[in-house]
Amino acid sequence: MRLHAIQMVSTDDVAANLAQASALVAEAAPQAGDLVLLPENFALMAKQSAYWQLAETLGDGPVQDWLAALALQHGIYLVAGSFPIRCDGEQRCYTSCLAYSPSGEQLAHYHKLHLFDVDIADNQRSYRESDSFIPGERIVSFQAGEHRVGLSICFDLRFPRLYQLLAEQGCDMVVVPAAFTAHTGAAHWHSLLSARAIENQCYLLAANQGGVHIGGRQTWGHSMIIDPWGRSLAIQEQGPGVASSEFNPELITDVRQSMPLKQHALLKPLRRD
């Protein structure tokens, strides 16, 4: 299996974004059974109010049909960064990561747990995902051949307990589709990815947005693949492109055997007196 992180510079034109994604997947030239990751907001980068108009019911809609067809066309495991999914009775939607099998079956969906409500020193100044989105309530992984793949999205990367729980589910890799800002990405992106890979002795496959978007929003790019020892195997720094690398399960075994972190983990609370 090879891993492919697709980096995009999405706009407010859905058709153009899907065409860009399709072209980049073709550029990656995946083989049957490979895993391909699209970034957060692959289908749309716009004002938050626009996501409600694009949102689909889970398992039903033209963008989800397009994703299923793309997975089937290339015979790949396709993980679609984030896409708005409607919630009955709500005027907000989920921002969701969708996973597809090589036969085009939707294998799993993960609703982003940690919403990006922050104030930072960039030209946007303030981000409030909770104005338009509902947080998810469960941890999700899926089976890709012989390997378990954990799902996360962007801001989740700052919460190590999520990745620990995915590791406890037996994940050999975790995907991180993102639209990390240029400001926070320059400071923390690589460090956080490396830390999550090292702590949990798994591969991290991270696909970011990478450029300037509608309204002047800037994303960091630097989509990359990091192995269980914390090494960066491939990187796409800026602009649309692909970062690809082999997935080596033997390395996971070697790292976990030589440094058996699970054996040393605390199994009970420490005394506080």
Helix share, percent: 25-40%
Q: Biggest β-sheet, characterized?
A: 6 strands, mixed
Could you give the order of strands across the largest sheet? 5-4-3-2-1-14
Overall number of strands: 14
The low-confidence parts are: none
Report the total helices: 7
Shape designation? globular
Q: In CATH terms, what is the fold-level topology? A: Nitrilase/N-carbamoyl-D-aminoacid amidohydrolase
Strand content: 25-35%
Structural class of the secondary elements? Answer: alpha/beta
What is the averaged pLDDT score?
93
The CATH H-level superfamily is: Carbon-nitrogen hydrolase
N-end to C-end Cα span: 50 Å
CATH class: Alpha Beta
> What's the CATH architecture?
4-Layer Sandwich
Radius of gyration: 18 Å
Order of helices and strands: EHEHHEEEEEEEHEHEEEEHH
Q: How many separate structural domains?
A: 1
Features:
273 residues; six-stranded mixed β-sheet; 14 strands; single chain; alpha/beta; globular; Nitrilase/N-carbamoyl-D-aminoacid amidohydrolase; 7 helices
Care to describe what's here?
It is globular and about 50 Å long. It has one domain: Nitrilase/N-carbamoyl-D-aminoacid amidohydrolase, CATH 3.60.110.10. The longest helix has 19 residues. The strands form three sheets. It has a six-stranded mixed β-sheet with strand order 5-4-3-2-1-14. The protein has a six-stranded mixed β-sheet with strand order 8-9-10-11-12-13, with helices on one face. It starts with a strand and ends in a 9-residue tail after the last helix. It has 273 residues and is α/β, with parallel strands linked by helices. The protein has seven helices and 14 strands.
